[in-house]
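Budget justification aside, the reviewers requested a transparent look at the raw inputs and outputs of the sequence design task funded under Objective 1. We therefore reproduce one unedited record. The lines immediately below are the structure tokens for a 310-residue chain.
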């Protein structure tokens, strides 16, 4: 009698690999027989682990008239992994304007042009924004193929609120400008996500602590790669740690939202008086609740008192 398989036991690798490989091959074959419609395709690529490429992204790149990329050396490695043999052209911040006319002409001829970045989803802290706008203005279809994103990956594993977030890209390299930028982000009621280089990470976290206070910070390094690492803690603590023990690699920083601001009855009353001058009690309560973030029941009670006094 055979022994029953224990829960969590690893599957039979060769058999599963053959079955899954056949299913992926079948899906790719179905897509490859269909011609790729003309237009601009914004294709997400892996941020580290090449296995994060989607089947749709592979078949789209394999059928494109040309593939635009930041660095042909980096992208050639990805294409070789999936045996994609299509023309690869450099498209970056230094030649974006010069290349745009050629690309728009190719789109006008009905060609399918794919745009990728060195890693992740194009346009996010990467070139391509002006090209997408120009393609839309010229009436060409623009299609997004979603996939890996360091922004979303870092936020997803941060443990910070995800119901709202603000992506700030790279902060300025100089301290004065960086602190000024952080001051503009201080009151945003959402988690903040930024990129940073290893050489500036400690200084940036020190500025975060100085401007934003002791907020919870998550530093995610080398996401999806072999040496992936996530550190969590208060900004000043992490700043001190990284100042004494520098790290390397691609870095995403997630910062918790600002703590709720205490609102006084006097502030609520003043805001209600202003709103009631042109709105009903119901609408005034809604406006003040949204603006000040106070509890609706509290605002409503103060509104009732003001209405009775009137």
């Amino acid at each position: 009698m055979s022994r029953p398989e224990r829960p969590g036991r690893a599957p039979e690798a060769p058999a599963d690999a053959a079955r899954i490989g056949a299913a992926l091959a079948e899906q790719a074959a179905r897509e490859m027989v269909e011609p790729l419609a003309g237009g601009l395709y914004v294709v997400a690529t892996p941020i580290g682990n090449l296995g994060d490429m989607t089947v749709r992204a592979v078949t789209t790149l394999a059928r494109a008239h040309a593939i635009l990329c930041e660095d042909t050396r980096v992208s050639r490695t990805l294409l070789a992994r999936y045996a994609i043999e299509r023309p690869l052209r450099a498209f970056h911040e230094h030649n974006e304007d010069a290349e745009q006319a050629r690309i728009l002409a190719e789109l006008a001829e009905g060609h399918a042009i794919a745009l990728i970045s060195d890693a992740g989803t194009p346009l996010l802290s990467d070139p391509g924004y002006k090209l997408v706008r120009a393609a839309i203005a010229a009436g060409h279809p623009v299609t997004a193929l979603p996939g890996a994103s360091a922004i979303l990956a870092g936020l997803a594993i941060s443990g910070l609120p995800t119901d709202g977030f603000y992506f700030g890209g790279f902060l300025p390299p100089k301290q004065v400008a960086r602190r000024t930028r952080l001051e503009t982000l201080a009151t945003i009621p959402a988690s903040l996500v930024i990129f940073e280089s290893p050489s500036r990470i400690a200084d940036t976290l020190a500025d975060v602590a100085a401007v934003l206070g002791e907020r919870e910070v998550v530093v995610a390094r080398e996401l999806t790669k072999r040496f992936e690492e996530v550190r969590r803690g208060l900004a000043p603590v992490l700043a001190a740690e990284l100042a004494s023990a520098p790290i390397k690699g691609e870095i995403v920083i997630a910062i918790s939202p600002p703590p709720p601001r205490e609102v006084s009855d006097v502030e609520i009353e003043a805001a209600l008086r202003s709103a009631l001058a042109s709105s009903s009690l119901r609408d005034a309560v809604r406006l003040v609740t949204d603006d000040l973030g106070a509890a609706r029941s509290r605002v409503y009670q103060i509104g009732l008192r003001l209405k009775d006094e009137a």
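Confidence is low (pLDDT under 50) at residues 1-5. Strands lie at 39-43, 66-69, 88-90, 112-115, 142-145, 165-170, 191-196, 216-221, 229-234, 251-255. Computational costs for records of this kind are itemized in the attached budget.
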